[in-house]
Design a protein that fits this description.
about 240 residues; mainly alpha; Membrane-bound Lytic Murein Transglycosylase D, Chain A; 3-stranded antiparallel beta sheet; 4 helices; 3 strands; about 75% helix; rod-shaped; disordered N terminus
Length: about 240
C-alpha cells in the first residue's frame, strides 16, 4: 500500500494533465467535480469496472471498496453511460499535505509564541539580573567607602568614648563635691542652729537675770521708802 500510493498519485497527476490537455478536444475522457476532489468518468461500451479501476491506478485489493463506493453490487451489470466517482488522490494528497503544512504552521506559530514568551521571560530575567548586579555594585561601593572610612570612624568612636569617660568622671567628681558641699552645709547649719540656740538661751538667761535684778531693786526701794519718810519727819 505505501508503494502503490505514490503510483496512484503519479497516475492521477498524469490524469489531471490529460484532462487539461483533453479539454481542448471535443469530449474529455473524464471530468472533475466542482471541489476538484473526485474524478467523474462516464463508462463507455465495453468498460468493465475492474478495467476502469485499473485505468485510474486502483489496486485490485481496493476494487471491492471502489465498487461499493460507486454503489455497484454486480460488476457485470454496469452499462455504458454509468458515471464512476474516483477519488482524486492527488487532490487528497495535496489537501493532506496542506493540512499537514497548516498543522506544522500552527505548531511553528505556537512554538514561536512559546519561544517569544521564553525570550521575553529571559529578557525580564536578564533585566532583573542587571538591576540586581547594579544594586550589588552599589552595595559593594558603599561597603568599600565604609571600609575606607572605618579607621577614621574607629578613631572618632575612641575619642567619643574617651570624652564620654571624661565627662562621666567629671560628673562623678562634681556629684561627690556636691555631696561634700551638702554635708558641709548641713554641718554648718547644725552648728549655726546650735549657736543660735545657745545665744537664745544666753539671752533668756540674761533676761531672767535682769528681771531678777529689777525685782530686787524694787524690793530694796520698797524697803528704803518708809525709812526715808521717817527720817524726813525727824529732821523737821
Amino acid at each position: 500500500m505505501p508503494q502503490s500510493r505514490p503510483k496512484r498519485v503519479s497516475f492521477f497527476a498524469a490524469a489531471t494533465l490529460l484532462l487539461a490537455v483533453g479539454s481542448a478536444a471535443a469530449e474529455p475522457l473524464f471530468t472533475l467535480s466542482e471541489d476538484g476532489k473526485t474524478f467523474l468518468y462516464r463508462a463507455r461500451p465495453g468498460d468493465h469496472p475492474g478495467v476502469v479501476a485499473e485505468m485510474f491506478g486502483i489496486p485490485s485489493r481496493d476494487v471491492p471498496a471502489f465498487l461499493a463506493a460507486n454503489g455497484i453490487s454486480d460488476a457485470t451489470k454496469v452499462g455504458a453511460g454509468f458515471v464512476y466517482h474516483i477519488p482524486n488522490a492527488a487532490a487528497r494528497a495535496l489537501a493532506e499535505r496542506t493540512a499537514a503544512l497548516e498543522g506544522e504552521n500552527t505548531r511553528l506559530k505556537r512554538t514561536a509564541g512559546e519561544e517569544a514568551a521564553k525570550a521575553e521571560h529571559l529578557a525580564r530575567a536578564a533585566e532583573e539580573a542587571r538591576a540586581e548586579k547594579a544594586r550589588a555594585d552599589s552595595r559593594a561601593t558603599q561597603l568599600a567607602r565604609l571600609e575606607r572610612l572605618w579607621p577614621w570612624a574607629k578613631a572618632t568612636l575612641t575619642l567619643l568614648l574617651a570624652a564620654a569617660a571624661g565627662a562621666l568622671y567629671t560628673a562623678f567628681a562634681a556629684l561627690r563635691r556636691r555631696a561634700e558641699s551638702e554635708r558641709y552645709t548641713h554641718s554648718l547649719g547644725n552648728e549655726l542652729e546650735e549657736k543660735r540656740k545657745a545665744a537664745l538661751a544666753e539671752r533668756q538667761e540674761s533676761a531672767r537675770h535682769i528681771l531678777d535684778l529689777e525685782r530686787r531693786i524694787r524690793t530694796l526701794e520698797a524697803k528704803l521708802s518708809p525709812r526715808a519718810v521717817l527720817g524726813g519727819r525727824s529732821s523737821s
